[in-house]
TrEMBL record:
Protein name: 1,4-alpha-glucan branching enzyme GlgB
Active-site residue numbers: D404, E457
Every Glycosyl hydrolase family 13 catalytic domain range: 247-623
SUPFAM superfamilies in the cross-refs: (Trans)glycosidases, E set domains, Glycosyl hydrolase domain
Taxonomy, superkingdom: Bacteria
Lineage of the species this protein comes from: Bacteria, Pseudomonadati, Pseudomonadota, Alphaproteobacteria, Sphingomonadales
Length: 724
């Protein structure tokens, strides 16, 4: 039956809601019938993909509509289009069958598809004998979706997509295009109004900002050579091995001579050897997923599946990770599932409705960052995010994800006043949908990728952040989140506050150091001295220390010694290893020239040695997260501002950590040590090698009758290892 003229007009205008029902190749009473839009053609002849002639089609509309009967069964076709002056080949996108299948439909509908990144987005592939790109996007409330790009003159009439109504996904296979093609989605909302062109939520590559188009790209790396690294981490308990993290903002660690970003290969050549030399075990990048605004540092992400184009192609990041792994360094990414920005090309009202976000601003708007909050209770949104976590582990072999702003996800009233939030069904403030989402992320990641680590930036007293995300046997509501580790924000705030005080006043604030040990083993903690502490007017770590310039350096060295001897994994933001003086800025590289000054290079030497000791001495890492690895020796000497404890691990020589947080040299300080005989001084932050005054114990002390007399250098931390 011939369709009405209005339907044909809609096809030509690109406004037909179901073009696949009329365009392409179909079986009919008279045989195989083809209809195609071939703009500019005067005549057209159909061929199979392998080149067999199937017959001619006739132009029935001067705007480019052709139709006619073809030989054989329905199959994909190419048309040889002709005018009086030229010929060209056009493969008919509407003659191809769907790429997605019923199993995809079922899993997507359930929210249990764990390979969405293989199905949605843009995939360079071969389909039914033709090479091209398959596009698929979730927009369930849209009236119509087209893929537009540099391959169709950004014309929404050219490639209107097939609607899989049961799951709200639109798809189309566009033949004869490959990778490195720019594209977006043209979406007409339920109100009939076209949305601003949308970037692909699953885009694997994007244009360099300020341009915002998605780019077709392959992200597969077929020749990974890091099996030894991944096998090692899958075989160990991360709580009981050294984890020392160097936190890096990829855009400002170093710049090239034009003050532009290093690409991933340049970064690999410089950053990886530096981290190896410094003794860190892991690099943690501030978010590298695509983001439009440099000063957001990546925390307002518009392309969760795309490494930022600022640093080159996605393949470059894969090479970086492999290079790090071959050098024994793990790679952790900051990951931001808590919120997303309101940029029009992003997820905001993606199909004309509140699709990824909440409709109610009291649940869907974040006042701190002027961003939108994901609707974690919607299974498709949760699946989108869980798949993203899996994607980075699967496609890029990352070793861990540090989840940003977890506290803001857990509480509905986070940073809100009365009337600005809605309680949960029980009348409480907990965001149970977010809780279950976080539990699902951790359960899935740890099940699918043994050896991976997840870290929570979480600053409240939520119970069980790093407890397994199992279902309680007593049937109560599950609260354990299943992270591998939690950032110890209390340690950071308390100890930095202490180090900023004049030593004469520290005796009155002794608990700033001791209090943290009351809860140090309630979670698996990381001790973070992160980027957040050296921005927004807070100054550098060096500037936070009290005293004159010499004392600030001494305080910083003593503080680092205390931190590396304190139970918990370590994290230090870039630049602080050589005592950067100025506050960090994303607009420029670190002040590497400071290394020419002995005081700064001394701090760097100290951090390198601390990492070496931490890795080499099981007593310092083997029980980082368990109370049996720590014992106070001096907890109450507030008058002298002295702290002393012993670090222990099974079958390891104990290490005693002693800090003197006054500028007074304490000679013959009486100290009971847990072992008779010799103790070697394995670290002294007052060493002249680090820029100190050189006071100490000449390399060792002796314990007789359980008591030692120790020299405690001014504003310094020493470590003593039992030698027997």
């Amino acid at each position: 039956m011939k369709p009405p003229e209005s339907s044909l007009d809609a096809l030509l205008d690109g406004t037909h809601g179901d073009p696949f029902s009329l365009l392409g190749v179909h079986s009919g009473p008279g045989g195989t019938f083809a209809r195609a839009i071939l703009p500019g053609a005067e005549t057209a002849e159909a061929f199979s993909i392998d080149g067999q002639c199937l017959g001619e089609v006739a132009r029935i509309d001067p705007r480019g509509m052709f139709e006619g009967y073809l030989l054989g069964a329905p199959q994909p076709v190419r048309y040889r289009c002709s005018t009086a002056t030229r010929d060209w080949i056009q493969t008919d996108a509407y003659s191809f069958a769907p790429v997605l299948g019923p199993i995809d439909d079922l899993l997507i509908a359930q929210g249990t598809h764990m390979r969405l990144f293989d199905k949605l987005g843009a995939h360079v592939m071969e389909h039914q004998g033709a090479k091209g790109v398959h596009f698929a996007v979730w927009a369930p409330n849209a009236q119509r979706v087209s893929v537009v790009g540099d391959f169709n003159d950004w014309d929404p009439a050219r490639h209107v997509m097939r609607h899989r109504r049961d799951i709200g996904v639109w798809e189309i296979f566009v033949p004869d295009i490959r990778d490195y093609r720019a594209y977006k989605f043209h979406i007409v909302g339920p109100d009939g109004v076209a949305r601003p062109l949308k970037a692909d939520p699953f885009a694997f590559m994007t244009e360099v900002r300020p341009r915002t188009a998605s780019i077709t790209a392959k992200v597969e790396k077929p020749d990974w050579n890091d099996a030894a690294h991944r096998t090692h981490w899958a075989s160990v308990d991360a709580r009981r091995v050294p984890v020392s993290i160097y936190e890096v903002h990829a855009g400002s660690w170093q710049r090239d001579r034009w003050n532009w970003f290093l690409n991933w290969d340049e970064m690999a050549d410089q950053l990886i050897p530096y981290v190896v030399d410094m003794g860190f075990t892991h690099i943690e990048f501030l978010p590298i997923a695509e983001h439009p605004y440099d000063p957001s540092w990546g925390y307002q992400t518009t392309g969760l599946y795309a490494p930022s184009a600022r640093f080159g192609e996605p393949a470059g990041f894969a090479r970086f990770v492999e290079g790090a792994h071959k050098a024994g360094i793990g790679v952790i990414l900051d990951w931001v599932p808590a919120h997303f920005p309101t940029d029009e090309h992003g997820l905001v009202r993606f199909d004309g409705t509140a699709l990824y976000e909440h409709e109610d601003w009291r649940q869907g708007f974040h006042p701190d960052w002027n961003t939108l909050i994901y609707n974690f209770g919607r299974k498709e949104v949760a699946s989108f995010l869980v798949n993203n976590a899996l994607f980075w582990a699967e496609r890029y072999h990352v070793d861990g994800l540090r989840v940003d702003a977890v506290a803001s996800m857990l509480y509905r009233d986070y940073s809100r006043k009365e009337g600005e939030w809605t309680p949960n069904d029980e009348g409480g403030r907990e965001n149970w949908e977010a809780v279950e989402f976080l539990r699902a992320v951790n359960r899935t990641l740890y099940a699918e990728h043994p050896g991976i680590m997840t870290f929570a930036e979480e600053s409240t007293a939520w119970p069980g952040v790093s407890a397994p995300a199992d279902e309680p046997e007593d049937g109560t509501r599950a609260t354990a989140l299943g992270f591998g580790f939690k950032w110890n924000m209390g340690f950071m705030h308390d100890t930095l506050r202490y180090m900023g005080r004049d030593p004469v006043h520290r005796q009155f604030h002794h608990e700033d150091i001791t209090f943290g040990l009351m809860y140090a083993f309630s979670e698996n903690f990381v001790l973070p001295l992160s980027h957040d502490e050296v921005v927004h007017g807070k100054g550098s770590l060096l500037s936070k220390m009290s005293g004159d310039d010499w004392q600030q350096f001494a305080n910083l060295r003593a503080y680092y010694g205390l931190m590396w001897g304190y139970p918990g994994k370590k994290l230090l933001f870039m630049g602080q290893e050589f005592a950067q003086r100025s506050e960090w800025s994303e607009e420029r590289a670190l002040d590497w020239h400071l290394r020419e000054a002995p005081a700064h290079e001394g701090v760097r030497n100290l951090v390198r040695d601390l990492n070496r000791l931490y890795r080499d001495k099981p007593a310092l890492h083997g029980r980082d997260c368990e109370g049996e690895g720590f014992e106070w020796l001096v907890v109450d000497d507030a008058t002298n501002s002295v702290f002393a404890w012993v670090r222990k691990a099974p079958d390891a020589r104990p290490v005693v950590v002693i800090s003197n947080m006054t500028p007074n040299l304490l000679k013959d300080y009486a100290l009971a040590l847990p072992g008779e005989g010799n103790w070697r001084e394995i670290l002294n932050t007052d060493s002249v090698y680090y820029g100190g005054s050189g006071k100490g114990n000449l390399g060792q002390i002796k314990v007789a009758g359980g008591l030692a007399h120790v020299t405690l250098p001014p504003l310094a931390t020493i470590m003593l290892e039992y030698a027997g």
